[in-house]
Amino acid sequence: MFFIIESFINLSITDLGWAPLATITWGSPYTLFFLAILVIVNLILLFLNRTNTLDVDIFDIWHLSFTGLLAIYFGANLFVATVLVIFIGVLKIINSDLMKPTFNDLLDDWENPMTTTHLNYMMNPVIMVFDKLFDKLFPWLDKYDFDAAKLNEKIGFWGSRFAIGIYLGIFIGLISHQDIKSITTLAFMAATCLELFSIIGSWFIAAVEPLSQGVADFANKRLGGRMLNIGLDWPFLAGRAEIWAAANVLAPIMLLEALVLPGNGILPLGGIIAMGVTPALLVVTRGKIIRMIVIGAIELPLFLWAGTLSAPFITHTARALHASGIPATGLISSSTKEGPIEQFIAVLVGKASKGEMMMIVYAALALIAYTALFFWYRHEMMKRNQKYSDEGKEVADDVKFVATHAAANSAD
Question: Per the UniProt record, which residue ranges are transmembrane (predicted)?
């Protein structure tokens, strides 16, 4: 059995999770440059009334900086990378407005001021494709949906980050033929690391909080007290049990997929609690847990492939910045880094910047498909928001379907 596993599996990339990647990305001076550009873009959109969202989630700018730096690594110049970052950044802000009524629904609070521009929600268009297929092919499965809070309660400790770390440590120890003492040590080290990843990440979020508050104060002063949606990090939804139930179920599924997925080089560890995956599933499916698990299992390979593809860049950047704790040999990455589609596009744009004709064609087709899919998703979200409005809920005119088209017709 072990011979078969070792013969067919070569998962040599170390999965550090998102927190070390954020630290590495914030270590680049380009991240502050991209931050300044995106703050200016957000303010311009606000002044032009193209959005109602003020993005104060300064910390998570690192996701878009990561995308820009990845494009540069593969051959793009700073100008091309900046245009790509602005393009995705504008779509993120549009998406934050589109999602606002759904957030209100999920929180059962229509006075809620919060939304998010987090990159993980740019998976919404892909998820919605599968959600619509679910509507057509398997609508009857919804009647078997179950209470996510009860599932979490039943799983308890055995589905926690600590327990999953123990399972992974034992698994890795067994396939490497270590003795019982070494396996036990490895299991507890893996469990401790999984617990610490989220704690360490919270330190960096707190570190940029004063900067976020400064941006918010400046915008409120300049916009004369206009009521805005406040773009925060995604955890304001963390109270929804579906996020954690789906993550608990998807963790072993991701491990199994990683073992058999062609082209994957990551053994999930730091990112195995799929917080880069489940929040978007919650928004699109509106908490239908069976859909979240099925669609999540389908999309997980995208994250594993993207993590494998970006591993050389992450490793190179970490060593160039002399980041501590980076192994002298081998590659590092994250198995559930948000924005896998954006990573693929960044690689294509970077290679296209070298002048290779086929790469230029591939990059152009990828950008066209990405944009078309987003605007189809926008159309579907506007229809959803119109239904909220028809039910008497307060929804901004620019994010619902009928009102927008009615205004256009009257202008004609």
Answer: none
Phi, psi for residue 277 in degrees, rounded to 5:
-115, -50
Q: Which residues pair with 15 in a beta bridge?
A: 333
Residue 400 has pLDDT above 90, yes or no: no
CB contact at 8 A, 316 and 281: no
- Inter-CA distances, 239 with 75, 236, 243, 251, Å: 42, 7, 8, 19
Average pLDDT over the chain reads 83
- pLDDT, tens digit, 9 for 90 and up, residues 157-195: 665 667 766 776 776 677 556 778 777 887 777 677 656
Looking at residue 194, its pLDDT comes to 59
> Is 20 in a helix, a strand, or coil?
helix
Tokens of 300: 């997980």
Q: Is 114 helix (H, G, I), strand (E, B) or coil?
A: strand
Q: How far is CA 157 from CA 161, 162, 172, 197, in A?
A: 8, 8, 21, 18
Among the residue ranges 6-20, 98-112, 342-356, the one predicted with the least confidence is: 6-20
- 357 by Cβ neighbours in 10 Å (0-12 / 13-18 / 19+) ranks as exposed
User: Of 261, 270, 252, which is closest to residue 302 (Cα–Cα)?
Assistant: 261
User: In Å, what is the CA distance from 6 to each residue of 10, 72, 175, 246, 259?
Assistant: 7, 35, 7, 30, 10
Backbone angles phi, psi at 332, to 5 degrees: -125, 155
In the chain, the amino acid numbered 29 is: P
Which region holds residue 224: left if phi is over 0, alpha if psi is between -120 and 50, else beta?
left
Single-letter residue type at 331: L
Specify the DSSP element, H or E, that contains 382: helix 357-390
Query: Residue 370, CB half-sphere, CA atoms under 13 Å: how many?
Result: 23
Model's pTM, two decimal places? 0.82
